[in-house]
Design the sequence.
């Protein structure tokens, strides 16, 4: 006998992600799912963002396979932070986020960053309840990455090109990264940043401030 | 990379449906995987076959995977097109960038044959 199933394989994850989103919206919180390959500078951009005088109260969920180094770096900057260790999983999923929500003062925050596990593939496939996805690509990773890992570029609202201070020493074609990224996703907002020198940070901060402001005006 | 956890989700969903409706055994399952979903059909099959042996209802289930090509629709010239790659960079007929991806990201269970 043939029976219809007609269910998305990720249905369970999507359902919990929707519940997370509802809780975030109730708390008036804007949530960014921050993704990149390992070592691109996710934690560094969060440090720099926390150090800017943005006027935003920012919390962080750190996702790593193991260890709590990143959470310690956030705590040093007095940000409310929770560390998730996935114990081997290559990405965060909605349930991992749901289980730590009670450990964060959601109502006191304006903006929550969910720093995903370093991986240019899988994190893009799992919703965690975020408003938007933002990805980092450090220019040392090479200009071939957009076409090799298209999904993350397609699903992100913004691309932060980090380590721009190294551009003079590399043979990387920045224009090609931008061109291919925009071909994959014409709506992608691109920032050129150096966490080391602080170049490009003001534009990034201005953009997230606008995003948080719009969330306030247009809650779901 | 996480085909094993997807295989587990798949097994959980079909097992729950069997339990709910009193089906004793799953003979086969039809799923659709889009080529832009980031999932490798072979790896998903391998993972599913590895874990199904522990399932009372699905241990003989055969997994049929239909691969869905990436399809786009161009808003500039209204062209519907299919690409070989896992992504679309521009409309193949007018080179425009105002396209929407209309298929290719599926990760769906369609139906199953049960007894």
Sequence:
């Amino acid at each position: 006998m043939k029976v219809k199933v007609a269910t998305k394989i990720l249905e369970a994850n999507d359902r919990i992600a929707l519940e997370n989103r509802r809780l975030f919206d109730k708390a008036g919180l804007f949530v960014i799912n921050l993704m990149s390959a390992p070592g691109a500078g996710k934690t560094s951009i969060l440090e720099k963002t926390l150090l800017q005088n943005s006027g935003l109260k920012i919390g962080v969920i750190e996702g790593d396979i193991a260890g709590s180094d990143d959470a310690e770096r956030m705590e040093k900057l007095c940000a409310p932070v929770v560390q998730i260790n996935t114990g081997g999983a290559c990405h965060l999923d909605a349930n991992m986020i749901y289980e730590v929500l009670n450990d964060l003062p959601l109502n006191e925050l304006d903006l929550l960053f969910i720093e995903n596990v370093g991986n240019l593939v899988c994190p893009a496939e799992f919703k965690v309840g975020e408003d938007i996805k933002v990805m980092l690509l450090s220019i040392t990773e090479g200009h071939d990455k957009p076409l090799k890992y298209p999904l993350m570029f397609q699903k992100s609202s913004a691309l932060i090109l980090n380590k721009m201070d190294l551009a003079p020493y590399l043979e990387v074609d920045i224009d090609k990264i931008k061109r291919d990224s925009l071909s994959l996703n014409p709506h992608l907002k691109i920032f050129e940043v150096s966490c080391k020198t602080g170049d490009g940070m003001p534009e990034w901060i201005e953009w997230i401030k606008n995003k948080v402001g719009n969330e306030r005006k247009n809650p779901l | 990379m996480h085909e094993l956890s997807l295989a587990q989700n798949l097994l959980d969903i079909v097992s729950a449906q069997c339990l709910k409706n009193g089906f004793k055994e799953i003979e086969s399952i039809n799923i659709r995987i889009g080529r832009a979903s980031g999932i490798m059909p072979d790896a998903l099959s391998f993972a599913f076959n590895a874990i199904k042996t522990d399932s009372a209802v699905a241990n003989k289930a055969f997994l049929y995977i239909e691969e869905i090509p990436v399809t786009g629709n161009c808003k500039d010239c209204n062209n519907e097109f299919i690409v070989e790659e896992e992504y679309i960079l521009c409309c193949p007929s007018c080179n425009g960038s105002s396209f929407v991806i209309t298929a290719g990201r599926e990760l769906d269970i369609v139906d199953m044959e049960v007894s």
Q: What stands out?
A: The first strand of chain B starts at residue 26 and ends at 34. The radius of gyration of chain B is 17 Å.
